[in-house]
Amino acid sequence: MTLPELRTVIVRLPSPAASRWATAPVTVTAAPFELASTRPGVPLGAGAGEEDAPDGEWPPQPVRHAARAAGRTTAAAVTKGFFRAVFALRPIPALCERPAGRPRPGPPDRAPRPRAATPSGKPRVPGAPGVYGLAMSDTCEAERVRGLLDAQGKAAGLFAEVERRGLLVPGESEQAVSDRIRDLAAELYGVRRFWHKRIVRSGPHTLAPFRENPPDRVIEDGDILFVDVGPVFEEWEADFGRTYVLGSDPAKVRLRDALPEVFAAGRRAFEADPGITGERLYAEMVRIAAAAGWEFGAWHSGHLVGEFPHDKPKDDEFGPYIAPGNDRPMRRPDSRGRACHWILEVHLLDRAGGFAGFHEELLDLG
C-alpha cells in the first residue's frame, strides 16, 4: 500500500501489566515510501492484529515491516529512531517538520556529538531522554515551548476544576483530596503519571519542606492549604502550585495574596539580568520575601522542567536548581544541548502564625 505521506503508524505493543496487546499510536513525519503489508493482500492497519504478533514474537511484524519498507528513503533515519524507541517502550517527542533535502542547521564539518553510555551499554543520543536513536535536535525549540505552555495551561485548568467541584473542603483528609485530584486529572486529560509526589498540605503542615512527609491530616475550617502537583501531559512536565484559604483570617489571606506578588518580583529580577545564576536568583527571592515581611521556606526556589524526565545531570548537584551553589547562568543549554526552562517556586512562612503558603509555575515562559 502506497501512502503519499506517513502520519500515524498504529503498532501493537505487549502490555507490561497483562498478557495482552495494547495499541499505541506514534506520529512520524516522513517522505513517501512503500509500506509492506503484515500479510499478503492485507494492508498495514487494516486487519493487522493479534495474529500478526503472537505471544513471544518481538518486535511485532508491523514494526519490522514498517522499518524494512522505509529502505533508504529520506524517512529511514526517522523510522529507525521510531523502531528503537518502540524497543525502549518510551514516549516519542513530536518531530518538527523539515522540508525534504534541507540540511541540518550548523556547519557541514561539525563533528558528531559523543554519545553517552546507558546502563544497558547501548548508546543514547544526547537530547533524547530514554529514547535510543532519536535525537532531540529533530525537535525544534518552538515545539518544546508549545509543549510546556500547553502542559501548564492544562494544569491551570485542572486547578480551576478542583475549585469548581469543591474538592478543597473541611472534613476531608489531605490524602483523600490528593487522590481526588489524581482521579480528576485522569478524567479531564488522561493523566496517568506525576513526575513528583502529589502534595496537599493544610494548617501547620504547610510549614514543612517539600522533602518531608507529614502524617495525613483532616482539613479544618479556617485552614490555609496549598496544592502542588507535577502532572505529565503526554511527554511534557507541568509543575503548578496554588494556595487557598478556607475562611477569612486576614493574616492567611494576606500571605495568600503575597505569593503571586513575590513570584512576579522574582520574574522581574530574572528578566532584568541576562546573566543571572541560580544562586543569585535564589538570594534575590529570599531578599524579596524578607522585604515583604515573610521568611522564605525552602533551600531552593525552583528547578528545571521539560520533557519527562527533565534534565538532571548526575555530575552537577546544584545545576538543575535555583539554589545556593548553582553559579551557572540560568540561560544556558542543558546537558543535552537544549535551552533550559525553569519553574520558579515561592514558599513563604509565617512562623509566628504557624502556617505557610506556596506558589509555582513557569518562570521564563508565559
Q: Would you give an account of this structure?
A:
The protein is built from 6 helices and 15 strands. The protein has 2 domains: 2-100, no CATH class; 141-362, Creatinase/methionine aminopeptidase superfamily (Creatine Amidinohydrolase, Alpha-Beta Complex). The protein starts with a strand and ends with a strand. Strand 9 (232-233) and strand 10 form a beta hairpin. The strands form 6 sheets. Strands 12, 13, 14 and 15 form a 4-stranded antiparallel β-sheet that branches. It has 366 residues and is of the alpha+beta class. Helices cover 27% and strands 17% of the residues. The radius of gyration is 24 Å and the shape is globular.
Q: Which CATH architecture of the largest domain? A: Alpha-Beta Complex
Radius of gyration: 24 Å
- Name of the CATH first level of the largest domain: Alpha Beta
Please state the average pLDDT score.
Answer: 74
The tally of domains stands at 2
Number of strands: 15
Secondary structure blueprint with pairings:
Blueprint: E1 2-3, E2 8-14, E3 21-27, E4 33-34, H1 61-70, H2 76-88, E5 116-117, E6 123-124, H3 141-164, H4 174-189, E7 199-202, E8 224-229, E9 232-233, E10 236-237, E11 240-245, H5 250-272, H6 278-291, E12 295-296, E13 302-304, E14 342-350, E15 355-362
Antiparallel strand pairs: 1-4, 2-3, 5-6, 7-8, 8-11, 9-10, 12-14, 13-14, 14-15
Organism: Streptomyces tremellae
Region (Disordered): 96-129
Pfam family, one: Peptidase_M24
